[in-house]
Specification:
EC 3.1.3.36; 13-stranded mixed beta sheet; IP5; about 30% helix; SAC_dom; phosphoinositide 5-phosphatase
Length: about 1050
């Protein structure tokens, strides 16, 4: 296929070539242009080629286009991603009735739909524009541009260059035919019926890496009628790509004595890398709240002849706990389990997904006896023991210290050591493999379980062991069909080569270098050259992972749509836009709200460890208030701010305070809730701890921590901030503790610190502090009071807070817009919290004789937050007094099943037509009237707007529609969907069969009447009534 460009309006045409048409592709074109005034909405048409005038267009590249990966919005511009270079890897299963060939992507180009700035036609030098092409083509040709992989130089990098580096690295693959699904393993494909198996929209969404950018095109495809959808698939305009590895070898094996000709066999290896927790080595570890783990790969070994086909599937993935590695990583891995008490729900979700997908699961943990790896192993084993009833013996584990086995037996002895593990050998027999008849695709036997192997990175050790398991299972298959093939050296040589290449490919993706130990995998021997190669790779990994991977992580997140600032490209569809607008207005019908209480405290500890002082007056200051749902505690100077601590922070003090607080929570009288430490994080002396009720861990998700230094102009962490963010049901919160610049007169430095933190503290996927719905700062802000020392002390002793507040530096900065703009603070009805003589309630009498100040503050922003208490506690073990606040927050709980049901109901009601009514005319007439300043007040629980007699009928809002005279988006008050959300099948069925009500008419009655009955159900539109795609 070829890609053409025209101007006015700027339009890209992806059209079949004569070569495509000779091979049976329909003569078609897929036409793209940007919707007017929108950087993330496109207009797409699927037309016959004779309906498109290509005479006035320019072919943007001489190279054949292999397919389209999708549409993406970057820097307020929209780009079409197309494959411009790919090679055929081979047919992974020649015995299949249809070829199952795979291509490797070598280069992807991104062409803008919105601007000519990035046009480069240097590769299309012999495709000169026709005479009818607009005059501005010459200007386009002169534009400075560098396509991401172009040799042309440019002063400005193409905005999609990082994306192109990711998808053009030789690790992406796609199926060369539309009728087979590369993302799904063989057993799943063979279980589908014939029609589903050939549907491009049927795939394993865990492994389709361009799902985010191709989603709009798949939705567009779904709206086409069946014939056009089939033709679109046959054109192969839309490509679904996996990342990982695909390798194929074909070989001749001896035939039985009764048959002279050899048997042609094919051995293939397909590794599918999951994208749901994708990233680089030190940036992405462990599991997320949905149970997706880092570096999750499904690897399938396929062996096929003209009679039988064999498939064996294994998976690998990071230890499914919340853990990470912070700071500069060399060869000693510093591991932190970030949510040691809150990993269980995510851990169980992960294994529940595996058992649902694969059946039995046997985990093989290859971590060793090093301190950090031992910590992970113990936590892994403990989490598995804590969930015995959930899996009903479907999940088991073997701990195998790989490095110790190599030390004892060498790499050669590891194979035998593994085969002596009864748990492993028993499960090899128990799980079996998938076997199918080559000619009929009939399944003879199905694999019943899967091995889940991990080491620290799930690369070198994991690949070595998976190679052994793959060979062991294939040997079992060969024992059944042809024993003599067990001794064919060529077969096992190819098998080793495939697994060595697989290890290298997966290692390059995750760690930036090839895998270690592959010299042994390839040759079966450990050589000096292999040892030197492994040493070189280790050094390269350390450099790449520490200094290059951050930019790569951002590019991965952008490609997957994970950045919080991204907007997914949509295809212009007024019907769906109307439905989405109506859904947003009817939020209350598929969601409820619940109230929660949040305790927030901040305390500068002056570098002191926990003492015998009781913390209950601070943590539970009001006995009449119920136990809070969330407790967020910010500490400053949790360690002394010495040079040694700044260079290498001691985390022991933080652990001591965690223990002290947990003990206080557990031992308090009349407790009604049990708390766990959800997450903690430390930056030198600044630390943030978040505790939650134990029963809430299943509904609190996406917990992340981040920090930002402000000391010594961002070089040192003696000053700075720590943030923790989380989603509680469908409402998000961000807690920030900070220690701003000290010094009475350093107001501007504090303002700068605040702005630096607000703009520079970033969570994963581009989230910032201000991207959250509810934000609470609990900090030692260090702002002082601009009065004489004696005056401040006298006013404090007399509790004259108004006079002190008038001279408060923070309030002045907020009023002037210099810091904390948009934030609120409760009334300061307590004495200044700094500075006291230790162990007393007496303000500083030392040599420096500090002026008392409200340095310790709690500020907040968010419509869901309601402050109920703001005060301080009279603890004496520091020179600061701790401050606390109690919030009552509103949390939104969305029932996604009910939302989907409502969406379908609205869509069906809008597209249903009466006798003689045309759908396109009805859609054209469905326009919302513009807002009017004369609109009546909104309805309340006591009165509806149409009950108010003073409103003239002509002032009533309406939906302009010729026929029928009702608003299909109105919310019926007696609808089951309008009540509290439910996911039951009965209520979903009722929701899907609802009709929309007639719009209410103005009534003079005093009492609110029930809404009028719905109109009779009209017929659903036929295919020919559907709006054009």
């Amino acid at each position: 296929m070829h890609l053409y460009l025209s101007q006015n309006p700027r339009t890209l045409y992806l059209a079949t070539s004569s070569h495509d048409e000779r091979h049976g592709h329909p003569r078609r074109a897929l036409v793209f242009r940007a919707a007017e005034g929108k950087s993330s909405q496109a207009v797409v048409e699927f037309l016959r080629k004779d309906q498109v005038d290509l005479s006035g267009t320019l072919k943007v590249t001489n190279r054949m286009i292999k397919g389209c990966l999708g549409l993406i919005s970057v820097d307020e511009e929209m780009f079409l991603a197309v494959i411009v270079s790919a090679t055929d890897i081979g047919n992974t299963r020649p015995s299949s009735p249809q070829p199952e060939s795979v291509a490797k992507i070598h280069e992807v180009a991104f062409y803008s739909l919105t601007s000519s700035t990035w046009d480069d036609f240097s590769s299309a030098y012999d495709a000169l524009p026709s005479a009818s092409f607009p005059d501005q083509t010459d200007a386009i040709l002169r534009d400075a541009y560098s396509q991401p992989n172009s040799s042309a130089t440019s002063l400005v990098e193409h905005p999609c260059s990082p994306l192109s580096k990711i998808v053009s690295a030789g690790t992406f693959y796609y199926a060369l035919a539309p009728y087979w699904d590369l993302s799904s393993r063989l057993s799943r494909r063979l279980e589908r019926d014939e029609q589903t198996a050939k549907d491009l929209g049927t795939y394993d969404e865990r492994f389709v890496w361009n799902e985010y950018i191709v989603r709009s095109l798949l939705d567009f495809r779904d709206r086409l009628d069946a014939h056009e959808r089939e033709e679109l698939d046959r054109c192969q305009f839309i490509v679904l790509a996996i990342q990982g590895y695909v390798g194929v070898f074909t070989l001749a094996l001896p035939a039985p004595p009764t048959h002279g000709s050899p048997t042609v066999a094919t051995i293939s290896l397909i590794s599918r890398l999951g994208w749901k927790r994708a990233g680089t080595r030190f940036n992405t570890r462990g599991v997320d709240d949905d149970g997706n783990c880092a570096n999750f790969v499904e690897t399938e070994t396929i062996f096929s002849t003209d009679q039988n086909c064999f498939s064996c599937v294994q998976v690998r993935g990071s230890v499914p706990l919340f853990w990470e590695q912070q700071g500069l990583q060399t060869f000693g891995q510093r591991i932190q389990i970030t949510r040691p008490q809150a990993s269980q729900p995510a851990f169980e979700r992960h294994f529940a997904q595996l058992t649902e997908e694969y059946g039995y699961v046997h985990a093989i943990n290859l971590l060793g006896s090093k301190e950090n790896e031992t910590i992970l192993t113990m936590a892994y084993d403990r989490s598995l023991r804590n969930a015995p009833d959930l899996f009903e013996h479907n999940v088991s584990i073997t701990h195998f210290d790989f490095h110790n086995a190599v030390k004892l037996y060498g790499h050669e002895g590891v194979i035998q050591a593994l085969r002596r593990q009864e748990n492993i050998t028993d499960n090899v027999d128990k799980f079996g493999f998938t076997m199918a008849d080559a000619t009929s695709n009939e399944i003879i036997t199905l694999q019943k379980g899967v091995f889940r192997t991990n080491c620290l990175d799930c690369l070198d050790r994991t690949n070595f062991v998976q190679d052994i398991l793959s060979r062991t299972t294939l040997e079992q298959f060969l024992m059944l069909i042809r024993k003599e093939w067990l001794h064919q050296g060529t077969l096992w040589s190819y098998h080793r080569e495939l697994w060595a290449e697989n290890g290298d490919a997966l290692s390059r993706i995750y760690a930036g270098t090839g895998a270690l130990n592959t010299s042994f995998t390839r040759s079966g021997k450990r050589t000096l050259a292999g040892v030197l190669s492994d040493a070189t790779k280790s050094v390269s990994r350390a450099y790449i992972n520490n200094f290059q991977d951050r930019g790569k992580q951002i590019a991965i997140d952008m490609f997957l749509g994970n950045l919080s600032t991204q907007r997914q490209v949509t295809i212009f569809d007024p019907l769906h836009d109307l439905v989405n607008e109506a859904l947003n207005k009817r939020l209350h019908e598929y969601s409820t709200t619940k109230h929660c209480t949040i305790f927030v405290g901040t305390w500068n500890l002056n570098g002191r460890p926990p003492s015998s002082e009781f913390l209950l007056p601070w943590l539970f200051p009001r006995s009449s208030v119920q136990d809070p749902d969330i407790i967020a505690l910010g500490f400053q100077e949790i360690v002394p701010l010495s040079a040694q601590q700044i260079v290498q922070t001691d985390a022991e003090k933080k652990r001591m305070w965690e223990t002290k607080i947990l003990n206080t929570l557990a031992q308090r009288p009349n407790k009604s809730a049990e708390y766990i430490l959800l997450r903690s994080h430390q930056l030198v002396g600044t630390a943030l701890l978040v505790f939650v009720r134990k029963e809430l861990t299943a509904v609190i998700r996406n917990v992340e921590a981040a920090s930002h230094k402000t000391g010594l102009r961002g070089m040192a962490g003696n000053k700075g901030a720590v943030g923790i963010r989380l989603d509680y049901h469908d409402t998000n919160f961000c807690f920030v503790t900070a220690h701003l610049a000290a010094g009475h007169s350093n107001i501007e430095e504090r303002n700068i610190d605040y702005r630096t933190i607000a703009s520079g503290l970033h969570f994963l996927r581009g989230k910032t502090i201000d991207s959250h719905q509810n934000i609470i700062w609990l900090a030692d802000t260090n702002y002082r009071i601009e009065l004489e020392n004696e005056r401040v002390r006298a006013l404090a002793q007399s509790d004259d807070y108004d006079a002190l507040l008038a001279a408060d530096q923070l309030r002045q900065a907020m009023d002037d817009g210099d810091a904390f703009t948009g934030y609120s603070e409760g009334p300061l009805l307590f004495r200044p919290t700094y500075k006291y003589d230790l162990g007393t309630d007496r303000y500083d009498t030392g040599e420096k004789f500090r002026i008392p100040a409200w340095t310790d503050r709690i500020l907040y922003k968010g419509a869901d937050l309601d402050l109920s208490v703001y005060s301080r506690a009279e603890l004496k073990s520091s020179d600061h007094k701790p401050v606390f606040a109690l919030f009552r927050a509103t949390v939104r709980v969305i029932d996604h099943a009910t939302r989907f049901a409502l969406s379908r109901m609205l869509f069906d009601n809008v597209t249903s037509t009466g006798p003689g009514e045309k759908l396109d005319e009805k859609l054209a007439s469905l326009t919302f009237s513009s807002g009017s300043k004369d609109l009546p007040p909104p309805s309340s629980d006591d009165a509806a707007w149409w009950d108010i007699p003073v409103i003239p009928p002509e002032k009533l809002p309406y939906i302009s529609s010729k026929s029928p005279p009702y608003n299909p988006f109105d919310s019926p008050t007696d609808s089951p969907i309008s009540s509290s959300p439910s996911s039951s099948e009965e209520e979903l069925y009722q929701a899907l069969t609802l009709q929309a009500p007639i719009a209410p008419q103005p009534l003079q009655a005093v009492r609110r009447p029930p809404p009028p009955p719905p109109p009779p159900r009209t017929r659903k539109p036929s295919t020919k009534d559907s709006p054009p795609g």
